[in-house]
Write a sequence for this structure.
């Protein structure tokens, strides 16, 4: 993916299309998990790829993989959408509003099983902190308030948990 992102940074539309094909399922899955509604997840995905197109040259390999960088962009777009809808006082998004059919499922059963296995291998605290931060879209400060624990503890749990997930998933 690094070569595709590098070519995208040079304005190569074909490379960008290939990058989209290689990564859109993962980014959509993150967005859908956070937003719970297909139309909002699609909006977040579109905004994330616009940002990726414009900021491809800003990627730094020492800070993580290309996919990790792209997922963080999608996650921040989803958080922006959550905040926007929260401010507008729209109805709370609930799990039962997601209507994903098996044919539109963004991850294969094998990928989903591996993710569940890897999440299950984490300490309970790490799993809970990651779930609140990445799947519920909470900031570190919101997780701290929710769990009534120090910020440093939450950040450590999340960092160590993500490192364990990365090793388990071999990203």
């Amino acid at each position: 993916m690094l070569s595709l992102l590098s070519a995208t940074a040079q304005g190569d539309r074909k490379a960008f299309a290939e990058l989209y094909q290689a990564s859109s399922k993962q980014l959509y899955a993150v967005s859908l998990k956070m937003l719970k509604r297909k139309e909002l997840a699609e909006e977040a995905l579109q905004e994330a790829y616009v940002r990726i197109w414009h900021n491809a040259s800003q990627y730094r390999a020492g800070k993580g993989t290309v996919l990790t960088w792209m997922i963080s962009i999608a996650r921040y777009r989803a958080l922006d959408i959550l905040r926007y809808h929260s401010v507008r006082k729209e109805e709370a998004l609930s799990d039962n509003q997601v209507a994903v059919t098996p044919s539109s499922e963004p991850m294969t059963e094998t990928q989903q099983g591996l993710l569940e296995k890897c999440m299950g291998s984490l300490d309970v605290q790490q799993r809970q902190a990651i779930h609140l931060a990445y799947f519920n879209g909470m900031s570190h400060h919101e997780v701290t308030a929710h769990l009534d624990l120090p910020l440093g503890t939450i950040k450590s749990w999340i960092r160590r948990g993500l490192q364990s997930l990365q090793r388990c998933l071999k990203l």
Notes: Residues 22 and 131 are 25 Å apart (CA to CA). The chain has two domains: 1-92, 107-171. Confidence is low (pLDDT under 50) at residues 89-105.
